[in-house]
TrEMBL record:
Residues 155-306 form the Peptidase M48 domain. PANTHER family: METALLOENDOPEPTIDASE OMA1 (PTHR22726), METALLOENDOPEPTIDASE OMA1, MITOCHONDRIAL (PTHR22726:SF1). Pfam families: Peptidase_M48. CDD domains: M48C_Oma1_like (cd07331). This is Mitochondrial metalloendopeptidase OMA1-like. GO terms for cellular component: membrane. Belongs to the peptidase M48 family. It comes from Cicer arietinum. Its cofactor is Zn(2+). One of its GO terms (molecular function) is metalloendopeptidase activity. The keyword Ribosomal protein does not apply.
Amino acid sequence: MMLYHRSKKLPLSAFSSIFSNVKIKNKFHNPFISESTRFYSVEPEEIPSGFIAGLKWKFEKHETVPFTNRTRFILPTISFERNRGQEEFEEIKKGFEGRTLDSTHPDCVRVSTIVDKIIDALNKEVKKMRPAEEITFLRRIWLRLIRRSPPSTAHLDGLNWEVLVVRYPDVACDCYPGGKFVMSNAFFEHFGNDFEIATCITHEIAHIVAQHGAERFTKTLSIMALQSLLNQSVITYFIKAFQERITRRHEMEADYIGLLLMASAGYDPRMVPKVYEKMGKFDEAKSVPTSATHPSGAKRAKALAQPKIMEEALIIYKNVKAGFVV
């Protein structure tokens, strides 16, 4: 999500709202590296296989975020994510029936062209992240123990990217699992140049890359498991506070991933912090309540402008401009 409040973006619920200190070591500074048979009736010889199956399931659900290498537990399957994303996208189209720009409209063509450019860069980056050969289960365990697990990218395979520009008075854009991107035409009135549009798009796509919606869903389920033990009002407050905290961290992570995607797509990353500063001032002028879910524009700009972070993005950018494979 960008800096504007999510409920102000579109008059329909967003997919990632359903799924509503990390540290890693890296070559560069990285701010994100942080009615069934009862058990006692099971035959003894069946226990080892059940244990292994459970262990395998746990490791398969323990995934690594591309670009940041942060690890987390993800419950929803890829198909579940995509189905929910498609359902939300269809609701958006239905809700804006008669208020969408034709795919041949200049604004829609413009956004689609930028999205294609960014997705092309993303696909190249994902290809470089993948191991040359299939990793066995035992090796996967070892890599997990030494914190060297390869990034989880299967959810990015075979996406059918679609772009929808809607007539809506508020500045808004969103991206749904399965490769569905929505932007309001009001966005062009305030953030009209291609660079600003690309900054917004890469940030939203970064949420999909990092599976932030599925992660929030998983964490929220964990909290809700305590519901029977705590007062309803207490658990409701706790869930809200927890989700806001997680969302703020996800916004910062999406900013970072988006910065690297901008560089990989050939956009000068040094200009990105200025866009976040502008977005922050825009939200302040519009009195958009984002403090609960979003860091301030100034804080986000400062985080991205840190020398070690910008150095990483600049190396990618300069190599892309020089025609090198980075």
